[in-house]
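User: quick one, fold this
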Amino acid sequence: MTSRLAGQRAIITGAGKGIGRVVAESFAKVGIHVGLISRTESDVTSLAAQLQQSYGVRAFAAAADVSVRSEIEQAVAGLISQLGGVDILINNAGTASFGTVLEMPVEQWERMIQVNLLGTYYTTRAALPTMIEQNSGNIINVSSTAGERGSATTSAYSASKFGVMGFTESLMQEVRKHNIRVTALAPSTVNTDLAKRVGLKLGDEDHQMQPQDVADWILSILELPHRVVVKQASLIMTNPQ
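Assistant:
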């Protein structure tokens, strides 16, 4: 069965690894053309070539740090030009580290806000005029269950992800009149290299959320009739007990 999403054009940040890479692959499988953004150019260049060859979609790559406004604006503008527009924006790029307020270096705290919150804002701001002109679009911001509740040692990460939730809520109200849907996703721990790097405890695969679960979740939201807006959706792993 052909997906009704076939032929749409998506831009995905953090597309070189983890959730972003699997989302890109899942989009290409259903015929969505993709623009891939990562700080590491080789990751997205090779992925774009692979997706074009395997699925026959148009796929383009751009290197940018989402926390640097000039870089992300240039990357988004270039991808929109190559794709001929943008129907879907996935704000997935993010970083994480944990520590108490006094233990964590100020620079690390600031970096979390710059990437997770400002990066989402910068990327959205760059793509939004095209969506408004088209009078249609979908924006999905990847937050976290840490953006729904804080805990000890997550002050910086939670602050950035709570910010994404608030930004999503406000933007959703702002752009509904332009037929643009905005959704915040709040997954719990996903089995990615980032999760392993920051020392999160990962269970067995049957009970640990995988990047493909998030990609499938995103596709299910995009497949909904455009009259339906999913404002916020949480996804948590099952209890292995």
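User: anything notable?
Assistant: The chain has one domain: 9-235.
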